[in-house]
Design goal:
mainly alpha, rod-shaped
Length: about 260
């Protein structure tokens, strides 16, 4: 009979392979933990700067719109002044009081228009002053956040440069290890890792100390007690045993821990 491949190996070989995979993946987790929240902080700062730049652009557009309004009102004032001059000239050639009064009303209307445009222009200039203050605050905030981002990026790049080679090497080792394990076991392992906060899918049994012998051995993941009848199966590696409480795969304690 032909020798079994690793994928079709004994239960003990499968457990050993899973535990080795866990040790590799735990080291990858350790490296990523060193980076901490930096990648998320960098992303958050980048998103905030995008939002602030959008706000700056919007304020600039609003200022331009108000400036256009002021410019249009200046033109309207000049038109009104021109109309007043024309009506006053026409008053010199009127034939009766009715025509004179009619022109006087037109002049009065244009003068009111000028006052209205002047008032609206002053209000618009005040709005521009307020928006420029807001704009300055937004620009200063962008510069501050950009400084924070540059610092965080430099910090992240330094950490990545120190750990990237090790992580890439471990990632390759993890992929290679998975190829030598039955696909169903790999699927179960990855599902357990995803659901576990510490990424541990395969854990060693924690032996009870002499002073705690009555408590029995416990799961290295959730630290719940393992029934005595299951402990022999774990030690002999004749069955794949999972913790009744957390579902992690259990292996005997070895000298080198994860």
């Amino acid at each position: 009979m032909a020798a079994a491949t690793k994928k079709e190996g004994t239960i003990a070989e499968k457990l050993d392979a899973l535990f080795e995979l866990q040790k590799i993946d735990s080291e990858i987790d350790r490296i990523r933990t060193i980076r901490g929240e930096l990648p998320l902080e960098v992303q958050s700062l980048e998103d905030e700067i995008i939002g602030l730049n959008t706000r700056v652009s919007k304020i600039n557009d609003e200022i331009k719109e108000i400036e256009t309004e002021i410019s249009d009102r200046k033109i309207a004032v000049k038109d009104a002044e021109g109309a007043i001059a024309k009506y006053k000239e026409q008053q010199n050639n009127v034939r009766n009081n009715r025509e004179f009064e009619s022109l006087s009303k037109e002049i009065e209307f244009q003068e009111l228009e000028i006052k209205l445009h002047d008032k609206k222009s002053k209000e618009a200039k005040y709005k521009i002053d307020l928006k420029k203050e807001t704009l300055l605050e937004a620009v200063e905030r962008v510069e501050m956040k950009q400084g924070d981002l540059d610092g965080k990026k430099a910090e992240l790049e330094a950490i990545v440069s120190e750990t990237q080679k090790d992580e890439e090497k471990l990632m390759k080792a993890s992929d290679a290890a998975k190829k030598n394990i039955d696909g169903r076991l790999v699927f179960a392992y990855e599902r357990l890792r995803t659901n576990a906060k510490n990424g541990l899918a395969v854990v060693q049994v924690i032996r009870a100390s002499e002073t705690q012998e009555k408590k029995g051995n416990s799961c290295g993941g959730c630290f719940n007690k393992i029934p005595p009848q299951r402990q022999l199966d774990i030690v002999t590696k004749k069955k794949i045993i999972v913790c009744e409480h957390c579902g992690r795969i259990l292996v005997p304690q070895e000298t080198t821990e994860i």
